[in-house]
Amino acid sequence: MAKLDFPVGPQHPALKEPENLRFSVDGELVVDADIRIGYVHRSIERSCSERNFVQDLYLCERVCGICSNAHTQNYCQAVEAIAGVEIPERAQWIRMIMHEFERIHSHLLWLGVAGHEIGFESLFMYVWRDREVIQDILEMVSGNRGHYAMTMLGGVRYDIAPEMVTKIREGLAFLRQRAEYYADIATSEQTFLERTSGVGVVSGETCVQLGAVGPVLRASGVAFDVRRTFPYLQYDKVEFPVRTSELCDVLGRTLVRVQEVIDACDICTQCLDMMPEGDVNMRFPRKVPEGEAVARIEAQRGEVIYYVRSNGTDVPERVKIRTPTLANLPASLEMVKGGYIADIPIAFASIDPCFSCADRMVELNDVSSGDSRTMTWAELVKLSRRKS
Amino acid sequence: MLNGLVKWARGKSPWVCHLNCGSCNGCDIEIVAALMPRFDLERFGVLLEGSPRHADVLMTTGPVTRQIRDRVIRVYDQVAEPKFVVAVGTCGVSGAPFYPGYNVLGGVDSVIPVDMYVPGCPARPDAIAYGVLKLLGTLDPKADALVKEIESRRDTTGLVYTPSEMAEMRQANETSLGQTAARS
Ligand code: SF4
Question: In which domain, by residue range, is A276 found?
Answer without folding.
Answer: 44-358
